Amino acid sequence: MTADTTRSDEDLPTPFDSDIDRRAAAYRRLRAEGPVVPMPGLEGALAAVSYEAVYNGLATVDDFGGSAGQDDVPDIDKNIAAMTEPRHGKVRRIMNSVVAFHKSQQIEPYLQDLVHRLMDEMMAEAAVNGEEGVDVVRRLATPIPPAAMSRLFGFPESDAKEYEKWSRLGGERYENALARGESIKMADLNPEQRSYIDQKIEERLELPRDEWPEDAITRFLTTEVDGETLDPRNIRAQIMFMIGAGSDTTKNVIGNLIYRLGLDQEAYAALREDPELVDVAIEESLRMDAPAQFMVRNCRQDTELVGEPVEEGTKVLMCIGSGNHDASKFEDPDTFRLDRASREHLSFGSGPHICPGATLARLEVRTLMREFTKRIASFRIVDEHYDSLPLGMLQGQKSLRIVVEPA
After folding, report:
1. Count of helices and strands (H, E) across the chain
2. pTM for the full model?
3. Residue 84: which residues within 8 A CB-CB, separation 6 or more?
4. What is the pLDDT of residues 309-350, one digit of tens each?
5. Domain ranges of the chain
6. Which 3-state string (H, E, C) describes 138-171?
7. What is the mean pLDDT of the chain?
8. What DSSP element (H or E) covers 381?
9. What is the CATH number of domain 20-26+86-289+324-406?
C-alpha cells in the first residue's frame, strides 16, 4: 500500500489534505458516493466515510484490526493500536490499569497547578504584546499533554519539553513510512526517545522490588494478564505510543477548541456564564475537529461493512473526521453547537478498542478551559486562517495567536 499524498491546487481534495476546508470537501464528496468507497490516492484501499460505517468498522475488531505501518513488525515491537485480538485485549487490560492510575496519583491537583503557572506566563506575555497577541498553541496546548504524561510515568517534568519534539519527529517518520507503504517499529520512530525510555526501565529494574515507586512504569512491569507480564521491549513500545498519541491528539483538541470559541464569541460567553458547558464544548470540539482524522485497519477475513463487501487483506481507512460530519447522524454537522451535549462522536473510536486515554485527555482539556474562562473575559483570533499542521492524518494547528481581555 503506497499513498500518493502529493497534490497541486487544481487536484481534487482528498482526506490526506492538511487544509481543513479541502479535507471537508473531500469527505462530503466521498459520502455522496456511498458509505464505503475507494480511497483516493491509495490504490486498493477503501474509505469508510459514513458515521455507521466508521462506527461499525472500528467496533468490529474481529473483522478489522491492526494499523498501517506495522504489518511486518513483530508483536513485541507493536503498539497497542497495531495489535489484533487476542493479544490486543491482554495488553489493553494492562494499559487500562496504567492510564486509570492517574486517579490514585491525584493528577488533577497537579494539572491545576500546571495550568495556573502556564496561564500566568501567557497573561504576562499578552500584557506586553498587546495587539500582537500570544500563541496559545505554544503557551498552552503544547506543554500540557507531555507534562501530564511525565507525571503519569513518574518522569521529571523538565524532561517533558523533549516529548513534543519526539512526537513531532516520530509522526513525520510514521507518515513517511506510510506514504512509502513500509512498516516501521515504534523504536525506530525516534532513537533518542527509545534510549530515554530504555534507560528509565533499566533504572527501575536495578532497584530492589520493594523500592519501586507506585507509578505507571511499575504498573507496566508488574500487572499480569493470564499470568503474563509485558517484556520491557514491549513496554517501551507502549510508552512511546502513549507519549506520542497523548501529546499530539490532546494538544490538537486544546488548540481546536480555542479556535472554535474564538470564531463564536457567543459560545465563549456562554461558557463563562455556565462553566458546566465546558464539558459540552469539549465534546463538540472533538466532533468538529477530530484530532486524528482517520485510522487504518486491515480486513482480517472476507466480510461486509454496512452491506459493502470487503475482501481479506484490504486496507480500510476509518475516516473519523468524515463520520463526525455525517448529516444522517448529526443535525447541522458543520456548525459548532453547544446544544448537542453528546458523546456520540467517533474521535475516541468505538466498541472494545475505544481510546484508553480518553478520560485523561478530557481531564487535561477541562482543567485548562475552566481556568481559561475564569481568567479571560474575551479574546479574538489575530488571523482566523487555520494554520494546519503538515500531517494529513492529524487535524491541529502549528500556531494560534489570540489577543485577550483579562477578566
Report:
1. 15, 10
2. 0.92
3. 61, 65, 66, 300
4. 999 999 999 999 999 999 999 999 999 999 987 899 999 999
5. 20-26+86-289+324-406
6. HHHHCCHHHHHHHHHHCCCHHHHHHHHHHHHHHH
7. 90
8. strand 376-381
9. 1.10.630.10
